[in-house]
Amino acid sequence: MHTSEKSRRHFLSHSARLTAGGALLASGMASTATASSTGSRPICEEAPAVRSITASHYQLRNVRLEEGFEREGETTIATKTALYDLEINQGKITAIEPVKNRLKGTLPAFDAQGLLLLPATRDMHIHLDKTFYGGPWEAPRPRKGKTIMDMIAREQTIIPRLLPDSVQHAEALIALLQAKGTTVARSHCNIDPVSGLKSLEHLQTALQKHQQDFSCEIVAFPQHGLLHSNVDGLMREAMQMGVQYVGGLDPTNVDGAMEKSLDAMFRIALDMHKGVDIHLHETSPAGIAAVKYMIKTVAQNPQLKGKVTLSHGFALSVMADDELEEVINGLAEQQFSVASTVPIGKRSMPLPQLSEKGILVMTGTDSVIDHWSPFGTGSMLEKANLYAQLYGNIDEFSLSRSLAIATGNILPLSDTGERQWPVLNSPAEMMLVSASCSAEAVARLSDVRATFHQGRLVSGAVSKA
């Protein structure tokens, strides 16, 4: 959650100012979506709000789906949409019919009122276990002049204060994510000498209470250093408690021994048959060496192929030309994924280049509000918006493609404009948005009006049909 010699503040401090104007503009547009390229507008008549759907088999009517791109020559100028009725059964979409073909039936029916249906978003890097969210306002203490080890020492005094209410705070944060359209997450969870396994136990308690409305993988995160805090044994215990990923942290700046630290992390993953998700903030030559060493290690241990996520990976932002190309090729060959908060600063992460090579690029909140940062909103649409701004995606086509970073690479339309989501029997992981198309939702940070997880309405409201 934090940087070393290149602080996280350096990368993220400008993002809140950058998006504030867009968020204010989006809030002013919340009540109405602009006309789609078909000329029809979302239906906005008042109707009784339905905030819970108990039926496992029902219809969702008047859903706006993307149908294709409108082009002038080779240029995409608009997105074509139309209204459909969906049938949801046991968490899957089992029928997709144009409204003109509507059949009368006995199923419970609900009205989406012409709102745009998009894939639900995924927060693939968050710390649900240690947050101020859900409590009184509290800004982080100043970071200026503080080293990573200073911040670790500070956290050691904060954790005992957070633990008693960590279940309630995690639940409040889950509710925020759901309200923003997120139904799937990956949460890092502290494994440290201060909390022992308590942070993990509390997080698992919170997630157990939401197993019907939220899906979350857990990364055991040695926040105070795998070697520095001597938590190898605790990490192994965490794996036995059902944790899916072995975490790691800056092997040189925190543990002081790059190869030894990374070897210890990978050893746990190999012994326990788990994946790896490592925080790597280092931008020094040691950070570059760490990325290359991880690629080499996975190549030597094929059972790790496709099971390693590089979180943050700021070292990629200081590489260039042949070195960067070689490293990206190595990441692609070993099927790494990259989790990025889409940082903005003097250096930019090569996220488009990673995607072009077939590397899955994910995004996440990281912090909503805690002792590291006060700026997170919990919105993955905001991350797609930042991505579009940072990499110059201002036209209809590239804005629609920017949504992929927020949805696990699921997009309504293919690059050639064929509808590829939703399809029959696809999971009903979806959100209703006050927008005419994906491009508008990304550019204008459109309001999420309802969120569905496995067919269940978990946030927001629809209307009774």
Question: What keyword list fits this structure?
Answer:
8-stranded parallel beta sheet; about 475 residues; 19 strands; globular; 7-stranded mixed beta sheet; about 30% helix; 14 helices; disordered N terminus; alpha/beta
Low-pLDDT stretches:
1-44
Q: How much β-strand is present in the residues?
A: 15-25%
Specify the biggest β-sheet: 8 strands, parallel
The count of strands amounts to: 19
Give a summary of the structure in a few sentences.
This protein is of the alpha/beta class and 465 residues long.
Structure in words:
With 465 residues, this protein is an alpha/beta fold. It has 14 helices and 19 strands. It has helices at residues 8-12, 15-28, 148-162, 166-179, 198-208, 232-240, 258-272, 285-300, 321-333, 351-356, 380-390, 396-402, 404-407, 438-444; strands at residues 49-50, 57-72, 75-89, 92-98, 109-111, 116-119, 121-126, 182-190, 215-221, 245-249, 275-280, 308-312, 337-340, 360-363, 426-427, 430-433, 448-453, 456-460, 462-464. The strands form 3 sheets. Strands 7-8-9-10-11-12-13-14 form an 8-stranded parallel β-sheet. It has a 7-stranded mixed β-sheet with strand order 1-19-5-2-3-4-15, with no helix packed on it. A 4-stranded antiparallel β-sheet has the order 6-16-17-18, covered by helices on one side. Strand 17 and strand 18 form a beta hairpin. Helix 4 (166-179) crosses helix 5 and helix 11 packs across helix 14 (438-444). It is globular and about 65 Å long.
